[in-house]
Write a structure and sequence with these properties.
Oligomer: single chain
Strand content: 15-25%
Structural class: alpha/beta
CATH topology: Rossmann fold
CATH architecture: 3-Layer(aba) Sandwich
Number of domains: 1
CATH superfamily: Vaccinia Virus protein VP39
Helix content: 25-40%
Amino acid sequence: MVAVLGFTREQILNAVRDMYTDVAQQPDRVFHFPTGREACLFVGYPAPWLDALPPTAVESFAGVGFPFRADIVRPGDRVLDIGSGSGTDVLTAARLVGPEGVVFALDMTSAMLSKLRRNIERAGAGNVRVVEGNAEAIPLPDASVDVVTSNGVLNLVPDKARAFSEIFRLVRPGGSVQIADIVVGKPVSENARANPKLWAECVVGASIEEDYLEMFRAAGFENIVVLRGLDYFAASSSDDTRRVAAALGARAIEIRMSKPG
């Protein structure tokens, strides 16, 4: 069992599961981070894209950016969404790849998986495959997808280097990755990192931006481009969250990269 500053990996993951169970089951609740349709619009999703999805998918959205800004998903692609939640990005990708493509929807939170399955049925998305698991050990074969997408999830992963290596393993040579995630401008204190609840709230698990990008380079990716930075926490309802985020220089970034072909 991996220990993270006194807390085990499983304690961190349980805190994340608890938080996103609440997001799934109580979508009208006010959280420390933006959620739902307003959050989608704030981070850049076009309203017509949201209108094409079941409202129950959008209501539990908890992403931090608009990874589709990368414009890399094509008809017929095989796409993996890491941390699918209630399905906003999964169902968006399913529309982009069309009936000849397939989207693998990975999540580890039971409540989100249940909601995701219902939303897939409501959307009539026959090209989606639900996969239960986490980003550190993804139960799919090597080089099995053309594109990996993820939105606000990798900052929550205790062993990021392992997760990034998994992404590299799964993408075919010449394939691409689009990610929106939280990074920070200065180190997070050990006391803050040792609080599993704070990991689940998207700030203290985040890496310094250059370290984050370097982990992807170390995993083997190239052509890494930061497409946009966003003051994501400006939309938080919590004064404390906005204060902590500002002190750490926390922001969302949207990035695109490729696996050498």
